[in-house]
Amino acid sequence: MKSPLFNYYCALSVEDAVQHLIDFEGSLILAGGQSLVPAMNFKLASPEMLIDIGRIDGLDQITVTASEVIVGANVRHRDVELSDEVFAVQPLLRQAIKNVAHVPIRHRGTSVGSICHADAAAETPMLLVLTGGYVTAVGPNGSRKIMAEDFFKFHMTTDRAADEMVVSAHFPILPTGAGCYFREFARRKGDYALAGVGAVISLKDNGKVSNIRMAACGIASTPVRLKEVEEFLMDQVLDEVVVEKAAEIAAQYVTAPDDGTTSKAYRKHLLSGLTKDVIFKAVGVRDEVAA
Fold first, then answer.
1. pLDDT on residue 289
2. Angle CA 67–213–275, to nearest 5
C-alpha cells in the first residue's frame, strides 16, 4: 500500500504551521504519524500537504499543575504512560494508554494526534471525555478551548477547523479521595477495543456514591459519556443488584452495528461485563468480577 502523493513542510513555530494550514487547503498536521500515515496508505486521507510539527519548541512537554495534566502536541504516548508524576495525579492515563497498540507504536505515536484522529475505538479520546478534559486549538483568530464532549463529532471527525492546530490536551487530575479504573476487551493485544470502559467514583462516608463519571469507547461513532449510568448510581450503595442494573443501562449505549469484527449484541454483552468490573475495581470492592 502506498499513500497518495503529497507535499511536505517542516514548520518551526505554531504560527508557521497555522499559516500553512491557511495557505494550503486540505493540509494536515504530522506529529507521530502512527494514525495519519496508515490512514493515507489506506486512502482514507489524501492531504495536499503534510505539515511536520516535530521541530516546534515546547510542544513535547508534559506539565502537571494543581488541577490538570497538560500534554503537548508532540508528546508520545509512551512518555505519558511512563511518567510517575502523571500517574500520581491521574492514574487513568497509564491504565488506558498501556492498551494503545504496541510499545514501538507508543514510542512514536502522540496522544494529541490520537485525539485529533478521533477513532471511536481509541483509548485517548475516551480518556478526554471521561476526565472532563479539553483541547487547546490555535487558528488565525487565536486560541480556543474545546471541551471533549464538544470536540468529537463522529468517527474520525472533530470540531477542529481546517485552519486550526491542536497544540495541547488537558486532562483534569483525579479528585481527592476518588477511585478510578479502566478496562477494555480487544480480539488481540494491541488491537482497537471492541469495547472499553472507564470510571471515576467518589464515595461518601456512608458508602453511597457522591460523584461519578463514566465513559466508553468502541461502542458508537464517538467516545461516549455514560450519563444515564452516572445518574442511576448517584447516591447509591454499590452492591451487586445496583451494579447489575447499571451494567444493563450501559449496554443500551451500544449503537455500533454488526461488522466484520463482532456483532452489536456481543458488544452489549462486553460493555455490560466491563461496566460491572470497572465500577467494583474503581471503588476497590473486590479484585475481579467476571466480564
1. 37
2. 135
Distance CA 109, CA 112 (A): 9
Q: Span 150-179, mean pLDDT?
A: 97
Q: Give the pLDDT confidence score for residue 288 in this predicted structure.
A: 39
Domains of the chain: 7-52 (3.30.43.10), 62-172 (3.30.465.10), 179-282 (3.30.390.50)
**Cell, residue 207:** 458508602
Q: What is the DSSP string of 3-68?
A: PPP-EEEE-SSHHHHHHHHHHSTT-EEESS-TTHHHHHHTTS---SEEEE-TT-TTTT-EEE-SSE
d(CA 145, CA 89): 22
pTM value is 0.95
Q: By CB neighbour count within 10 A (0-12 exposed, 13-18 middle, 19+ buried), where does 288 fall?
A: exposed
Confidence at residue 286, expressed as pLDDT on a 0 to 100 scale: 44
C-alpha cell of residue 156: 474520525
pLDDT for the residue 285:
62
Helices 240-251 and 264-282, axial angle in degrees (round to 10): 140
Q: Which residues pair with 190 in a beta bridge?
A: none
- With a cut of 60, say whether residue 161 has pLDDT above it: yes
**Tens-digit pLDDT profile for residues 47-68:** 999 999 999 999 999 999 999 9
* Distance between start and end Cα atoms, the chain: 38
Residue ranges in 234-263 assigned as alpha helix (H): 240-251
Strands 142-147 and 134-139: antiparallel
